[in-house]
Write a structure and sequence with these properties.
The protein has 344 residues and is of the alpha/beta class. The protein has one domain: FAD/NAD(P)-binding domain. Helices cover 36% and strands 23% of the residues. An eight-stranded mixed beta sheet has the order 3-5-4-9-10-11-8-12. It has a five-stranded parallel beta sheet with strand order 6-2-1-7-13. A hairpin with a 5-residue loop joins strand 10 and strand 11. The longest helix has 30 residues. It is globular. Bound molecules: flavin-adenine dinucleotide.
């Protein structure tokens, strides 16, 4: 008789892991604090090896049926410079989190998984319980706070399937998603000692008047119900082996969102955890052996890209380096490929 596994967190990592375990007939219970469908702060741009995990679990078809859009080109912008649209070395998949999380939850239930939504898990994490609770909150680091904003819009003419607009305050990604909408999602930093009137979300997302970002957003129609915000982001890379619990997704570590690889890491880490957890469930491994096996595989898969992503984000957020970065990305194919491939 297989032992049951409890997953705390029904986001992408928790649901993907639950689906994979149910496909192997392991009994699974997921606790989710929120409900479905729900909007999340996310660029909604799935890029990288997580697509292979989705295909392995047969979930790529599900995303396709839900209207996922393929992104094949990207362009970078500052207030004064832009790259021409450039082909992405490999295509990304764009789907709203409103749809994505809900279809995965439905699939998990269809496979016989038990999902308790709208209820926060407050118990202790022990044997048989996996943490998929998302990012570890961090209020500030070195006097800087990170926060994210997102909203869907229509009537936006994009030059590429993905546009990244960088400024001194952060960056905003625009990408075409299902239903003919465009997702507008930004990551911003704020000094803890910053003075002056608080900015509202429109001012933050719109960017500087006269910039290409401002031009696009000023004539857009927004779906106000899709607006969401989060704060307390921790972007310092962490290792899975240092965690005392079995963790998947952002519960291990967050990768800078500019890479569009966080969801991929959620799918990949869940994919790597399936076989060891199924083995534990059937008595083949102890809980600590299972934790170590999953953590080592995750660290081996993610360490390099986390290091590269940290540098990419640093460069992109240094105003003096933004225009040289754009010039290099516009004219140097090797640099374009390298920056893309090493961060996923
Ligand atoms: C601004 C921004 C832009 C981003 N853009 C992109 C992008 O374009 N592409 C990309 O790939 N990634 C992007 N990401 C990252 C991506 O959103 C995350 O990596 C991904 O959501 C991680 O999935 P997860 O399942 O680990 O966590 P989550 O999706 O956060 O899920 C965790 C779940 O756990 C639940 N939970 C937490 N605590 C409890 C509890 N005690 N009991 C029950 N439930 C609990 C939460 O309600 C939540 O549903 C972005 C992130 C930010 C901040």
């Amino acid at each position: 008789m297989a032992q049951s596994i409890t997953i705390v967190g029904g986001g992408l990592a928790g649901l993907t892991l639950g689906i994979g375990l149910r496909q192997l007939d392991v009994p699974v219970l997921i606790h989710e604090a929120g409900t479905y469908p729900r909007h999340r702060v996310c660029g909604e741009f799935i890029s990288g090896r997580g697509q292979t995990t989705l295909a392995r679990l047969g979930l790529d078809v599900l995303l396709g049926r839900a209207g996922a859009v393929s992104a094949k080109t990207a362009a970078f912008f500052t207030a004064t410079k832009a790259t021409a649209p450039r082909p992405l070395p490999s295509a990304a998949i764009c789907l709203s989190r409103f749809t994505l999380d809900a279809i995965l939850a439905e699939k998990f239930r269809e496979l016989g998984g038990e999902l308790i939504a709208d209820q926060r898990f407050v118990g202790n994490f022990g044997e048989g319980i996996v943490r998929a609770t998302g990012r570890h909150a961090q209020t500030e680091k070195n006097g800087v706070r990170w926060f994210g904003l997102k909203i869907h819009g229509r009537n936006l003419a994009l030059a590429a399937d993905l546009e990244m607009h960088v400024s001194a305050q952060g960056y905003v990604g625009l990408c075409k998603i299902n239903g003919g909408e465009v997702n507008i999602c930004g990551l911003f930093r704020k000094q803890t000692n910053e003075t002056g009137p608080p900015k509202n979300w429109r001012e933050r997302l719109y960017g500087q008047p006269g910039s290409p970002l401002h031009e696009r957003l000023v004539s857009a129609e927004f779906d106000e119900g899709s607006f969401c915000a989060i704060a307390g982001l921790s972007l310092q890379p962490q290792r899975a082996i240092a965690r005392t619990e079995i963790c998947v997704g952002d519960a291990i570590t967050m990768i800078p969102p500019v890479t569009g690889n966080g969801m991929s890491m959620a799918f990949e880490s869940a994919g790597l955890a399936i076989a060891p957890l199924a083995d534990w469930s059937r008595g083949g491994l102890t809980w600590d052996e299972t934790r170590q096996k999953i953590a080592r595989q995750c660290d081996a898969a993610f360490a390099r890209r986390l290091a590269w992503a940290k540098w990419l984000q640093r460069i992109l957020l240094k105003p003096a380096l933004q225009n040289p970065f754009i010039a290099l990305a516009a004219h140097n194919n090797k640099f374009w490929r390298l920056a893309f491939e090493h961060t996923r």
